[in-house]
Design goal:
Layout lengths: L4 E6 L4 E16 L2 E12 L5 E2 L4 H17 L4 H10 L4 H7 L6 H6 L6 H12 L1 H10 L6 H17 L4 H13 L5 H19 L8 E4 L2 E3 L1 H7 L24 H12 L6 H8 L3 H6 L11 E3 L1 H15 L4 H15 L1
Antiparallel strand pairs: 1-2, 2-3, 3-4, 5-6, 5-7
Length: 336
């Protein structure tokens, strides 16, 4: 597929011609194993021959490197930079903290491909604050006091942040994968809808966390403290690395419900979703006796949420997107 159309000198045509940037597969053998890589090539628009452009070889090297690492499951330069950002640690201290030689991480950042063993260490540190704390403790004598304290404080912070259940983290990770932008307010409401719809369809909650009736609708307080300072696109936050891959452990039933919610409720802003929850019985019952501006942490029992959505399912058929869209429109009309 053509990406750009420019002009340069074609040695076959012996003149300046238009060229097209295209993707082409090549087979390359690395360590006695054949790989197919998709690289960018410049093709003359007149003769169809390949053209040599400044910088294209460097781009091809980068493309092959990224695809090779992905094929072999090796960490990328971006992964290493995320690890440094997560734990507020420099490249040389990170090398020492992980038990490597002092120049190992700097070399990886310059493009050297890590071994499987070292790649796995980096990946585990990226996914587990507890593991990173263990490595920091093991290699304490190799680090300066300042580097150790800063990295350990970051690891402690990360460990305390991710104190919600594994299932909740998996659901959040899948929501982030399905939607490009998720605000903290929007995330709270989507989790509530996922809990309600899943429990109505399958007779049990999808995660164990309890929801509370805050002024702005249902809120999972643990999740609020975890994501309150995330930006509109949490995937851009280095901490998202701790969630990567966790959604793979969800069942097909769980993914189906999250897909239903993402394709319907996920099309609205957090404020619109708040209006819907304010007109639902679970939140209204929990807020009885409280004014619109009075804070409250009243519990929204999972059984009450399930009972409400079972009734909604009987009326609308919320196992289908059409049923959910009808329900959403009815609730928004009621709120207007």
């Amino acid at each position: 597929m053509t990406e750009k159309r420019r002009r340069d000198f074609c040695i076959e045509c012996r003149k300046e011609t238009e060229y097209l940037l295209q993707k082409r597969d090549i087979v390359k053998t690395i360590r006695d194993k054949a790989y197919t890589f998709g690289i960018t090539v410049a093709v003359c628009a007149e003769c169809g021959g390949e053209m040599s452009l400044p910088g294209l070889i460097d781009q091809n090297v980068q493309e092959i490197d990224e695809q090779y690492r992905a094929a072999e499951g090796l960490v990328s330069i971006d992964d290493i930079e995320k690890l440094m950002k997560l734990y507020k640690i420099g490249k040389a201290p990170l090398s020492l903290a992980l038990g490597f030689g002092e120049v190992t991480i700097p070399r990886y950042l310059e493009g050297q491909v890590p071994s499987r063993e070292y790649s796995d260490i980096v990946r585990t540190a990226l996914a587990s604050p507890a593991y990173m704390k263990r490595k920091l403790t093991e290699n304490r004598d190799k680090l300066t006091d300042a580097a150790y304290r800063k990295a350990m404080a970051a690891a402690d912070s990360m460990e305390s942040l991710f104190s919600v259940s594994e299932k909740m983290l998996r659901v959040i990770a899948y929501v982030f994968e399905r939607l490009e932008e998720v605000t903290p307010l929007m995330l709270q409401k989507l989790l509530y809808f996922i809990q309600g719809i899943y429990s109505a369809l399958y007779g049990r909650p999808i995660f164990v966390e309890d929801c509370r009736a805050w002024i702005h609708g249902p809120v999972y307080s643990e999740v609020y403290h975890l994501f309150r300072d995330f930006k509109y696109n949490p995937i851009d936050d280095a901490r998202f690395a701790l969630l990567e891959g966790t959604a793979d452990a969800l069942t097909e039933e769980e993914k189906r419900v999250i897909d239903l919610v993402a394709n319907t409720f996920g099309m609205y802003s957090g404020k619109v979703l708040e209006r819907i929850t304010h007109n639902e019985d679970p939140w209204k019952e929990a807020r009885k006796g409280y004014g619109d501006s009075i804070p409250s942490s009243e519990l929204l029992p999972k059984e009450r949420i399930m009972k409400y959505y079972m009734a909604v399912n009987e009326k609308y058929g919320i196992d289908r997107e059409t049923g959910l869209r009808t329900y959403i429109q009815d609730m928004l009309e009621r709120a207007s």
